[in-house]
Write a structure and sequence with these properties.
about 160 residues, alpha+beta, Aminopeptidase, seven-stranded mixed sheet, about 25% helix, globular, binds coenzyme A
C-alpha cells in the first residue's frame, strides 16, 4: 500500500538486461537524449538507481550518479526521477526518492542534489516536501530547452565522516 491506496508497486535494479526499459521511459519523460556516459553512470550506481513497476508495467525510475567531493565525502547526484503521467500522484515518486534517501543515510552520503529547470514548479515543490532546498540558480545550464536556467536543489544528510 502506498499513499493509502492499494496498489502493487515494486522496485527493481537496472542491469544490461533491462536497460532498454529505462531508455524507453526516458524517451517518453524527458526532452533530452541521454548519452552513453549517462547509461554507464546508471550501471555503476548499483542500488542508487531503480525502476518502478506498477504490477508488471515499468512506469517510473530514479537514476543517480555517485560523486566524491575533494574532502572524500560521497554525494549523490539524481540525474533523473520520473513517473509516467497516468501513474503520477500515486506515491511512486515518493517511493523512489525515499529509497535513495534511506540508502544515502545508510551509506554515509553527505548530500543528495539535482538540477531542476526553473519553470518546473511541481518538481521543486515535490523536492521541498522531502527537505530539499534551492541552493543555487544556474543561468543557461541547458542548451536545447527553454527556459535554459536551472535550480540546484540539495538535501544535506547527517554528518558524514570524511576520509581525511
Ligand atoms: N503538483 C503539485 N504537487 C505535486 C505534483 C504536482 N504535479 N506532483 C507531486 N506533488 C507533490 C504532492 O504533494 C504529492 O502528494 P499528494 O499526491 O499526496 O498530494 C507529493 O508531491 C508526492 O507525490 P508522488 O505521487 O509521490 O509523486 P509522483 O509519483 O507523481 O512523482 C514527479 C512526482 C515529480 C517525479 C512526477 O511528477 C514526474 O515524473 N514529473 C515529470 C518529470 C520531472 O519533472 N522530474 C523531476 C526533475 S528530475
Amino acid at each position: 500500500m502506498i499513499s493509502g491506496r492499494m496498489v502493487s508497486v515494486s522496485l527493481d535494479g537496472v542491469q544490461d538486461e533491462n536497460l532498454s526499459q529505462l531508455k524507453k521511459l526516458n524517451s517518453i519523460l524527458f526532452p533530452v537524449r541521454y548519452n552513453n556516459k549517462y547509461y554507464a553512470d546508471v550501471l555503476a550506481s548499483g542500488d542508487f538507481t531503480k525502476l518502478a513497476y506498477y504490477d508488471d508495467t515499468c512506469v517510473g525510475s530514479i537514476t543517480c550518479r555517485l560523486e566524491k567531493r575533494e574532502d572524500g565525502v560521497v554525494r549523490v547526484y539524481i540525474m533523473t526521477l520520473g513517473v509516467l503521467a497516468p501513474y503520477c500522484r500515486l506515491g511512486i515518486g515518493t517511493l523512489l526518492l525515499n529509497h535513495v534517501l534511506d540508502l544515502s543515510s545508510k551509506e554515509n552520503v553527505g548530500e543528495v542534489y539535482l538540477h531542476v529547470q526553473t519553470n518546473n514548479k511541481d518538481a521543486v515543490n515535490f523536492y521541498k516536501k522531502f527537505g530539499f532546498e534551492i541552493t543555487e540558480t544556474i543561468r543557461n545550464y541547458y542548451v536545447r530547452i527553454t527556459p535554459p536556467d536551472c535550480y540546484v536543489v540539495t538535501k544535506y544528510i547527517g554528518q558524514p565522516q570524511s576520509e581525511k
